Amino acid sequence: MTNTRRYHPASMALHWLLALLILGSLAVGLYMTGLPFSPQRLKLYNWHKWAGVLILVLSAARLLWRLVQKPPALPAMPAWQARAAHGAHLALYVLFFAVPLSGWAYSSAAGFPIVLFAVLPLPDWVPVSRELAETLKPVHHYLAYALAAIVGLHVAGALKHHFIDRDGLLLRMLPGRA
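Structure (tokenized):
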């Protein structure tokens, strides 16, 4: 166990790795959908799917780690802010799973299998169905937008605590800080 005022190094690593993967996946997802059909677009779709699988695996690892390694207590703040922080974290964890699973389901329903790193074929977990794919596509998009919004709120809250409240909340998640 580490200092209870800071996150464990493994928690920090999972946090920042997931942050990079999620932001990268959101950016690639927005960019690739506007491209005309081409080898570049297909390559980006594969990268996006691979990132989604990694997000799913790392989210499971992060959730398991969180159950074992409790986070440090929040600094003093109004009760409504603490409830908002807990609610945002719960929403993030739900979306960490819902977004990649809905993308995987959409890919399966559309008949486009996921072959992780062009080597490991993953099972389709819903049947090929044009109607189901048409339903799942906007679900995946809206969930991704919800994730982006909650991530934005999370970042805004962390920056508010760092620059306005100056309570050290953000520093607890930064590696190399005492």
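The first strand starts at residue 115 and ends at 116. Residues 9-173 form a domain with the Fumarate Reductase Cytochrome B subunit fold (CATH 1.20.950.20).
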